[in-house]
Amino acid sequence: MANTLLTEEDLKKKILSDETENAVVEKIMDGLSTNLHTSINRICPEEEYTNVKEKVTNLLTDQILESVQNMNLEHIIVEEAGKAVKSKTKGTMLEMILNDEMLNSLIQPVGGEIVNYIQVSGADYIKGEISRKLAALEEKSILELCDNLNVSQDSVRGMVSSLYQTAIESAAGNLVSNLNIAGIIEEKVSEMCIDDLEKMVLSVMKKELDTIVNLGALVGAILGMLNILI
For the chain, which terminus, N or C, has the lower number of CB atoms within 10 Å? Predict the structure, then answer.
């Protein structure tokens, strides 16, 4: 049976049939249309998912805060704010009064306060924003996210179908080998009691046995008629 009735090609043909492929693709598409939170909970316990999300949030918070702190914000604020003030006061009396030194003396304390605020409260603010963004993201499905990226459902379906075909083509041989169909059949038959085995064999051979019985009856009738005639 393993070498003749269920070969690698037979398995590939069945699994890659339009009916099977469409059923699998539809099931995957249904999963992709479910919001991320529900989808993740199907494969990951809620507590474990919450812990992972917390770690990701903290990691992103630390990295974003570090990047902000490395920007030398105080210098940027003084420089950019000075340019903005000069642009707004150009051609006015204030332009003559507000020289660079005076502008710096006015703006620099503000820049220092902003930098100080980021040092003290920046992590909490960033973490809160990331948590809100993740919560909003969890309510979306993968298909909705793809749509936001201008990737249509038809395109997603095509990619899923292509991946399915590629996976089956490459894995069918290993699947047949790992299944060890001959071993499974031998094991199941060994576990059956004699009565069940007899019923199974007779059910398979019923047609052939009926044919043999009918043929025997026909031969007997012919021999009987020949004996009478002779």
Answer: C
Question: Out of 39-43, 69-73, 166-170, 175-179, which region has the weakest mean confidence (pLDDT)?
Answer: 175-179
Full-model pTM: 0.57
**What single letter denotes the amino acid at residue 171?**
A
> Residue 124: pLDDT band by 50, 70, 90 thresholds?
very high
With a CB cutoff of 8 Å and minimum separation 6, the contacts of 118 are 65, 68, 69, 73
**Longest C-alpha distance within the chain, in Å?**
145
Label residue 152 left, alpha or beta by phi (over 0 means left) and psi (-120 to 50 means alpha): beta
18-32 and 8-15 helices cross at what angle (nearest 10)?
50
Q: What is the pLDDT of residues 83-109, one digit of tens each?
A: 887 787 787 777 677 777 777 787 888
| Structure tokens belonging to residue 18 | 């339009």
Chain segment 6-40, per-residue pLDDT in tens? 666 777 778 878 888 899 899 999 888 998 888 88
Give exposure, 10-24, as e/b (b: 16+ Cβ within 10 Å).
ebbeebeeeeebeee
CB 89 within 8 A of CB 98: yes
pLDDT of residue 6: 65
Q: What are the tokens at 116?
A: 């100080």
Q: Where are the alpha helices (DSSP H) in the chain?
A: 8-15, 18-32, 36-43, 46-69, 73-89, 93-97, 100-138, 142-148, 153-179, 181-191, 194-229
Residues 29/156, Cβ–Cβ less than 8 Å: yes
